[in-house]
Design goal:
The protein has 16 helices and 9 strands. The chain is α/β, with parallel strands linked by helices and about 375 residues long. The protein has 2 domains: about 250 residues, Queuine tRNA-ribosyltransferase-like (TIM Barrel, Alpha-Beta Barrel), CATH 3.20.20.105; about 90 residues, no CATH class. Bound molecules: zinc ion (ZN).
């Protein structure tokens, strides 16, 4: 299939997790820096600007790119680094969603700052800065945002060739979606991302499904990434049903912060996990010593969650994911009764209202179960 070929050419992957190497030093240390879990990771300009890390300053002085600096620390050369703005976190505040999402923003980021971070990144792909268009926006602001997104594309094309640009498709109505897509295509963009997904999911689940299906059909034959996985149980929906090419997985970080252990597409409290029944690198660590706090515990649990999600994503990409009867295989026996009471994916996943709240990276370690 064309889809498989594109994966090899571009070195993108089904999952493109946020990789907070600028603001969190443990991403630059073993085991995370070796990153064998996905072919591509994403970092944000926002993460660069909120970081006070000395490593960044010394790198900037040395004239190396961020990716070169990472590779020196052990990051695989063949992995792709995708540069994003982090604008969602900032836009969320403007849209009044910040409190609900648990996001704290105390500054704005100009396009110049974003492009400066992009230029020092040495990244392989660059997300063109966008504006979140909400379903509830009036026509006039919608149009203004579309014009802003277009003007941003022209700006980024001054510093990045079009084949490295990822154009974010915003908007809920077909006329706006079509307009943006045509504009990107006219300027040689061949990689796309669906944006504004989380607010839309929360606004109207049916509309959410219509819009992402429409965007997928419109961009058929091109790479289509999705910003926003509101519930990890939607992985098969995105990757197998809608056939998105990739998805960001910030969700897995937040899940890990809440001490949740992924079994297939289900989140379980980590205390129920039987680490010896899982063969991932994270569980090997957790099995040797059950840390309950601190970075080592967090990292090992994150490795498990990302490895488990990668397995699901691989199955989905082959069209072979199905709800598992043995989805409790890596849980302790005593947990079985409790876990089977939870809804499973194939029972109307989109009607489920109990999606988890968000946490910021900054509070990852202060979580209480
Ligand atoms: Zn594991």
């Amino acid at each position: 299939m064309k889809r498989a070929k594109e994966h090899r050419e571009t070195a993108l992957s089904y999952l493109i997790p946020k990789y907070h190497f600028a603001s969190m030093s443990f991403f630059r240390e073993e085991p995370l820096v070796k990153w064998p879990y996905t072919k591509a990771v994403l970092f944000t300009a926002y993460d660069v600007y909120r970081s006070n890390d000395f490593w960044l300053h010394s790198l900037a002085r040395s004239g190396q790119t961020l990716k070169e600096g990472l590779i020196e620390l052990g990051f695989p050369k063949t992995n792709s680094l995708v540069a994003d703005t982090g604008i969602f976190e900032i836009e969320a505040k403007k849209a009044g969603l910040a409190e609900k999402l648990g996001i704290e923003i105390n500054f704005e980021l100009t396009n110049n700052q974003i492009f400066e971070a992009y230029e020092m990144s040495g990244a392989d792909f660059f997300v063109s800065p966008d504006e979140i268009i909400l379903a509830t926006d009036e026509d006039k602001p919608k149009r203004a945002k579309i014009e802003e997104i277009k003007s941003n594309l022209l700006d980024i094309l001054e510093i990045v060739p079009s084949e490295k640009v990822i154009g974010v498709i915003q908007g809920v109505e077909e006329k706006y979606i079509n307009d943006l897509f045509e504009f990107y295509r006219t300027h040689g963009v061949t990689k796309f991302a669906a944006g504004g997904i989380l607010p839309l999911y929360r606004h109207d689940k049916d509309l959410f499904q219509q819009v992402i299906t429409y965007v997928r059909n419109l961009t058929r034959g091109y790479w289509l990434h999705t910003f926003g996985l509101p519930d990890v149980r939607l992985l098969p929906f995105y990757l197998q049903e809608v056939r998105m090419d990739s998805i960001d997985t910030s969700m897995l970080l937040y899940m890990t912060a809440r001490r949740r252990y992924l079994v297939g597409i289900h989140q379980r409290p980590v205390r129920l996990a039987a680490f010896e029944h899982c063969d991932c690198q994270g569980c090997a660590t957790l099995n040797r010593q059950m840390y309950t706090r601190g970075t080592d515990f967090f990292v090992a649990l994150y490795i498990h969650n990302i490895s488990e999600a990668s397995k699901v994503a691989d199955e989905c990409s082959k069209g072979k994911w199905a709800p598992k009867k043995d989805d409790n295989r890596i849980l302790k026996d005593e947990s079985l009764e409790r876990s089977t009471a939870e809804p499973v994916y194939d029972e109307k996943p989109l009607k489920d209202k109990s999606y988890p709240d968000w946490t910021t990276a900054a509070v990852l370690f202060n979580d209480k179960e």
